[in-house]
Amino acid sequence: WRTRNVETQRADDASLLHLHRRLLALRKREIALSEGTLRLLAAPPNAVVFLREHAGRRLACAHALTGEPARFAAGGPGRILFATDRAREGERTAEEVELRGNEAMVVALE
Q1: pTM, full prediction
Q2: What is the Cα gyration radius of the chain?
Q3: Helix, strand and coil in the chain, % to nearest 5
Q4: In whole angstroms, what is the distance from residue 95 CA to residue 88 CA?
Q5: Quick one: which H or E segment has residue 58?
Q6: How far apart are CA 45 and CA 23, in angstroms?
Q7: Is the dihedral of CA 63, 88, 39, 17 positive or negative?
Q8: Which residues contact 106 (CB under 8 A, 6 or more apart)?
Q9: Residue 70's pLDDT is what?
Q10: Percentage of the residues of the chain whose pLDDT score is greater than 90
């Protein structure tokens, strides 16, 4: 408890607390994440991928469930809005996207 508490996590931009806050802020900004339709996309056995759509906005949400990388067809090129690895945020993506092991991301499709 001395190192795993809210006070410690507030001071660490890479903490789970900050990751959840970033994801909640994205959900507030992107209506498709709360009001859009949800459709599961084809994914390898070690990943889950779904598409959220609302008013022409399309967001592919993906999570590698193991330490192994996973590739998925996003449905078009796009840009990473959120990733567990913050260095990938803003990265342009092609039709096919590679998740690193245990990585999650939200991709805004063009």
Answers
A1: 0.89
A2: 15
A3: 25, 40, 40
A4: 16
A5: strand 57-64
A6: 24
A7: positive
A8: 26, 30, 33, 59, 60, 61, 62, 80, 81, 82, 83
A9: 97
A10: 79
Q: Which amino acid is present at 99?
A: L
Instruction: Determine contact, residues 51/43, Cβ cutoff 8 Å.
Output: no
Give the integer Cα–Cα distance in Å for 3 and 56: 44
d(CA 1, CA 27): 30
Mean per-residue pLDDT for 46-62?
A: 98
As a whole number of angstroms, the distance between CA 12 and CA 22 comes to 13
Higher-scoring residue by pLDDT: 34, 9: 34
Distance CA 47, CA 102 (A): 9
Residue with tokens 């342009």: 92
Residue at 86: amino acid letter: R
Assess whether pLDDT exceeds 90 at residue 14: no
41 neighbors 75 (Cβ within 8 angstroms): yes
Residue 50 carries which side chain, given as an amino acid letter?
F
